Amino acid sequence: MKVDPVDQVVIGQGLIAAAREMGAKLIRSAYSTILREARDGSAAVLDRDGRVVAQAELVPLQLGPIGETFKACAAVVSPDELEEGDFYINNSPFEGGQHLPDVYIFSPIFVEGSLIGFSGSVAHHLDLGGGAPGMNPNATDVHQEGLVVPPSRYNMAHDWNGGSFERLITANTRVPDLTIGDFNAQFAANALGAERVRRLCARYGRDTVMSVMDAHLDYSESRMRAALADVPDGIYVGEDAVDDDGVRDDPLPIKAAVVVSGDGISVDLTGSAPQISLHLNCPYASTLAAVYTAIKTATSSPDVPFNDGLTRPIEVFAPRGSILNPTPPVPVRGRSVTASRTFDAVIKALAKAIPDRVIATGFGTPYSLCLSRFADDGYSIYIEVFGGGYGAGPRSRGCDGVDGPLSNCSNIPIEALDRKYDFFRVTEYAIRSGSGGAGRSRGGDGLRRRYEILADNVTLAHYSDRYRLPSDGARGGKPGATARTCLSRRNGEEIAVGSKDGLTLGRGDVLIAETGGGGGYGAPDERSAT
Length: 530
Fold this sequence. Notes:
Layout: H1 5-29, H2 33-36, E1 41-47, E2 52-55, H3 60-63, H4 66-76, E3 86-90, E4 102-111, E5 114-124, E6 152-155, H5 156-159, H6 164-171, H7 176-204, H8 206-229, E7 234-242, E8 252-261, E9 264-268, H9 284-299, E10 314-317, H10 335-351, E11 367-375, E12 378-386, H11 414-420, E13 424-432, E14 446-453, E15 458-463, E16 484-488, E17 494-497, E18 500-505, E19 510-514
Parallel strand pairs: 9-10
Antiparallel strand pairs: 1-2, 1-5, 3-4, 3-6, 4-5, 7-8, 8-9, 11-12, 11-15, 13-14, 14-19, 15-18, 16-17, 16-19
């Protein structure tokens, strides 16, 4: 069906608005601080074949390859077999998912009895069982990280709202009220998205809306191909590395060979580290998200809609059994660390092709912190993801204290923490001045947080990166400062906490977390005195 250009613009923007409103509904309806305050969740509208048509601007790592997560569900139960009230669900890292806390739910959208698409959401859930509250830094297989929900079809009336599936989730989490509340926030977001799409169909016609979905994908593809055509053809190589695996000091290399040819691009990640026994393995869907985000960031205009059409000119190869395409049952909780280094490796490769359009490397890695405690009233679990300094660019210095480009989470206000948690108190939250790298444009500074522990038997679980290998400067700029974490015991003992570590804390202990800075851009002596 031929689409009128005006209809394409109006309906296309309506679909994007629906996805954005879904994202807002998800956040506002959430129970846990990791979703309600840190905004660690995302939402999208998909067509009837599971292709992402529009998405909220929330967490790129979760959304880039959401179509892969959907495909695994559709392979189990065909979309043609779905009925009103059904939903797909998947968090399996080796079947299109990412890590276990990120649970994907897809709800079919029916208009006049016909399936026209899906509303989809993902939320980082505070706890889904496993060997430790919130996160298990010592897991040696994925089953120790939590409950695996394979690609499945359930029904709201039969299986949720007190049904068997809701009871299963409740029985396998330490904080069931928060977890079930966040699941319900996902269902609410999906219901809102479905209603917005149905309204578009009522106004413009079902067939017209479905045709616009196709055209919207084609539009993003054509814009992406035009952007890639402006990149000089060639083979460009970039490399970065994860500091270590949490046990040995050897870095884990991430290598990217980027081939630009005409209006297409391919990324070969051969030569990257093999999969490891601990939780930094990066499922293929997360690897795709890192590559897609890096290419879009460096090559295309911000107004190009990020949907499945945009990914058509991009090919990605990651060897099976590597840290970027691991085989089960290895653990994957810290996959965002490795995905961040993949993003950096691709950006470094593209910097050789389009140097004036790429900024220096930032801290760009999640600083994930979990504090938990079991008391008479049950478990209390706090998780937050901090950012650091952004890399500087040719025309601007790096931003201070912001989350990385793959995560995009917000900080949790101190007031919300004071109200929710009684076993710790934040006594300092500040910019880590001077941690950004020097340059013609200076890299952004990292953050500092100080926690006073108010009770005994508090469990710390932590993973991050750039404790050893700093963010790189660009074109003569200097690297940013590395991250560091220190524990000051009540008895005066000072302990350096590793980048992937876990400890038991007691009343009177003080934990100091410092994230790294971004790299500078250009030689420092080129900096203007004014």
